[in-house]
Amino acid sequence: MIEGKSIESGMRLRSHCIHIDNRALMSITGVKDVLSFNEQEVALITEAGELHVEGSELHMTKLNLDDGQVVIEGEVYALEYADSQESKGSLFSRMFR
């Protein structure tokens, strides 16, 4: 492995990590996508599943999906991981049961 890349595949290996300083500054790695964001909630897809961050005056001060990094500032009230989509099935599989 060289600088976070697998030699065999050339793909970037990502781990998921959350670091919070004083409930005011949150750094998240292993982010695949941003589902939604506003001043009260940020919804992300991470390597560990769907993550919802609740708070007030939330602002994404850094967003780099190529590196899988997000930095959120504001007062953090709660973090919650949603059930994985794999257990629910895709939208089409639920529609055609």
Shape: globular
> What is the SS-derived class?
mainly beta
Q: Over all CA atoms, what is the radius of gyration?
A: 15 Å
Percent in helix: under 10%
Number of strands: 6
Uncertain runs are 1-10
In which order are the strands of the major sheet placed?
1-2-6-5-4-3
What is the makeup of the main sheet?
A: 6 strands, antiparallel
Strand content: over 45%
Mean pLDDT: 82
Number of DSSP helices? 2
Please supply descriptive tags for the structure shown above.
single chain; 97 residues; mainly beta; 2 helices; 9% helix; 54% strand; disordered N terminus
Write the layout of secondary structure elements.
Elements: E1 17-21, E2 25-29, E3 31-37, E4 41-46, E5 49-64, E6 69-81, H1 85-88, H2 91-95
Antiparallel strand pairs: 1-2, 2-6, 3-4, 4-5, 5-6
Describe what you observe in this structure.
By secondary structure, the protein is mainly β. 9% of the residues lie in helices and 54% in strands. The chain is globular.
Task: Give a brief description.
This protein has two helices and six strands. It is mainly beta. Strand 3 (31-37) and strand 4 form a beta hairpin.
